[in-house]
Amino acid sequence: MNFYTRKWVKPEDLNPNGSLFGGTLLRWIDEEAVIYAIVQLGNPHVVTKYISEINFESAAKQGDIIDLGIEATNFGRTSLTMRCVVRNKISRMTILSIDRLVFVNLDKDGNPTPHGKTEITYAYMGIESDEKKRD
User: Fold this and answer.
1) Which fold would CATH assign to domain 2-115?
2) CA angle 80-86-91, nearest 5°?
3) What would the pLDDT profile of 98-134 be if each residue is shown by its tens digit?
4) What is the model's pTM?
5) Segments making up each domain of the chain, as ranges
6) Using H for helix, E for strand and C for coil, what is the string for 38-86?
7) DSSP label at 18?
8) Nearest Cα residue to 77 out of 102, 101, 99
9) Alpha-carbon span 112 to 125, nearest angstrom
10) Torsional class of 103: left (φ above 0), alpha (ψ -120 to 50), beta (otherwise)
């Protein structure tokens, strides 16, 4: 699993208990995952279809730095399924895990459309990324 995104937990991200508000973390995850799906499918028209059970394993507190990890697990005809792990950057403790996030590839009219992908790529709209060049 690759951990590309880091977030710093700030006072405005906290719930009344002084820990990271779950809704804020889920917003960060959804944004990271849809960006990943857009890059993998080469299409900016991608939507969240399904998020499986969300397992909060430990709390993040103000000042913590967290890593968001996303990994593609399955390419469907019009969909991309991923899993996610969020961990504390310093302690490496898992904060949250999600087994399945499903995103659907859409055409310009908002209809599901086949994407033709079968494996992870490092290109977006035909432009090779720095990650592929480093391999």
Assistant:
1) Thiol Ester Dehydrase; Chain A (3.10.129)
2) 155
3) 999 999 999 999 999 999 998 887 554 444 444 444 3
4) 0.85
5) 2-115
6) HHHHCCCCEEEEEECCEEECCCCECCCEEEEEEEEEEECCCEEEEEEEE
7) S
8) 102
9) 19
10) beta
